[in-house]
């Protein structure tokens, strides 16, 4: 009996001292000595992913435009994703910082690492990355029960969309991610996976940059069957109006100018399930107009 009790107590001691470790999107091992309780997110998308992982209550700060879910709006601000306020970040005494590799100034992120802060670098490029990021953040925050449920729910929803559109006729798509300067996404961007899921073909998929600048002349040359745009707000489709002047475009002739609320496609979060559903509906509409 004595040996059994000693074994149980030893196991509990080892568990209490065991680090929680994951591999981030920069292929770095990230460990915390115990579940993180003061987390800072350096992008709106990271904020959403942390809430999805059940770690919202453990957040100590977030960057501007971290507006979903509504509780995120109450978090102390630590600058913007492009202009980090290092002093504000340090003042929160974070035990975990979630950075965005392609969005944050990595020099500042490296300074935080050099100061000894634990930094998880996030860069979801596929739908599966969204799910696995939620799971990894759940591990670091000690909220795996919530995180695993959210991750699997997202996987199931995306799988259903992929199955539904697996044999859909291809539709060429120009996705406008910004207006001035005019910008789109290449094939490596997560938005392109949404386009592929719906049976679309990104007409600028071959470009090297993740979010390249392009000209209106380049769009006219590609002559997409569909133009999809985000906007400056969740109900602001104004970026589509200028395209109506180009009557030679297939997308204009067929009335295939569509708006998708940007937060549902332009942030790598579980909201992409709703955004991809909307996108698929738009492409189905375009097919019906042929």
UniProtKB/TrEMBL annotation:
TM helices/strands, residue ranges: none
Pfam families: Peripla_BP_2
Coiled-coil region(s): none
Signal peptide boundaries: 1-18
Boundaries of every Fe/B12 periplasmic-binding domain copy: 38-287
GO biological process, one term: cellular response to iron ion
Record keywords: Signal
Gene3D superfamilies: Nitrogenase molybdenum iron protein domain
Domain of life from the UniProt record: Bacteria
Cell membrane recorded as keyword: no
Record-given protein name: ABC transporter substrate-binding protein
Naturally occurring in which organism (per UniProt): Alcanivorax sediminis
């Amino acid at each position: 009996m004595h040996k059994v009790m000693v074994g149980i107590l030893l196991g509990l001691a080892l568990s209490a001292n065991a680090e929680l470790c994951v591999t981030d999107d920069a292929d770095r091992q990230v460990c915390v000595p115990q579940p993180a309780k003061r987390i800072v997110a350096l992008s709106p998308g990271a904020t959403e992913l942390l809430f999805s992982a059940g770690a919202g209550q453990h957040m100590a700060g977030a960057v501007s435009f971290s507006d979903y879910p509504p509780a995120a709006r109450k978090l102390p601000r630590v600058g913007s994703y492009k202009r980090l306020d290092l002093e504000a970040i340090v003042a929160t005494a974070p035990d975990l910082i979630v950075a965005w590799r392609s969005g944050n100034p990595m020099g500042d992120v490296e300074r935080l690492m050099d100061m000894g802060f634990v930094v998880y670098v996030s860069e979801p490029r596929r739908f599966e990355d969204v799910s696995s990021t939620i799971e990894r953040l759940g591990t670091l925050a000690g909220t795996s029960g919530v995180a695993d449920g959210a991750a699997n729910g997202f996987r199931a929803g995306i799988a259903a969309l992929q199955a539904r559109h697996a044999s859909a006729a291809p539709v060429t798509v120009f996705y406008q991610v910004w207006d001035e300067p005019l910008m789109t996404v290449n094939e490596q961007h997560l938005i392109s996976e949404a386009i592929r899921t719906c049976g679309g073909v990104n007409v600028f998929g071959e470009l090297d940059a993740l979010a390249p600048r392009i000209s209106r002349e380049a769009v006219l040359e590609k002559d997409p069957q569909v133009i999809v745009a985000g906007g400056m707000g969740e109900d602001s489709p104004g970026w589509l109006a200028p395209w109506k002047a180009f009557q030679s475009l297939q997308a204009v002739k067929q009335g295939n100018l569509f708006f998708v609320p940007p937060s549902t496609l332009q942030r790598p979060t579980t909201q992409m399930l709703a955004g991809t559903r909307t996108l698929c509906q738009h492409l189905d509409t375009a097919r019906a107009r042929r």
